[in-house]
Amino acid sequence: MSVLILTLATSLLLASVLWFVLGNRLQLSEDPSHNEWLNFAAYYLGTLPVSFVLIFFGLGG
Length: 61
Known about the structure:
Elements: H1 2-22, H2 32-60
Helix pairs in contact: 1-2
């Protein structure tokens, strides 16, 4: 259970950093405010596997 929580928290942190660095590069919606949320969701889903590997091998190794 703690691996899941740490993975989600790490993914949130990494997605936030990516969103601040890269910004809204993906044009997923016409509405600017909706596009911001969709970009953040895409960054979050993209960092989930990376976060899992970092946490799983970091705690297990």
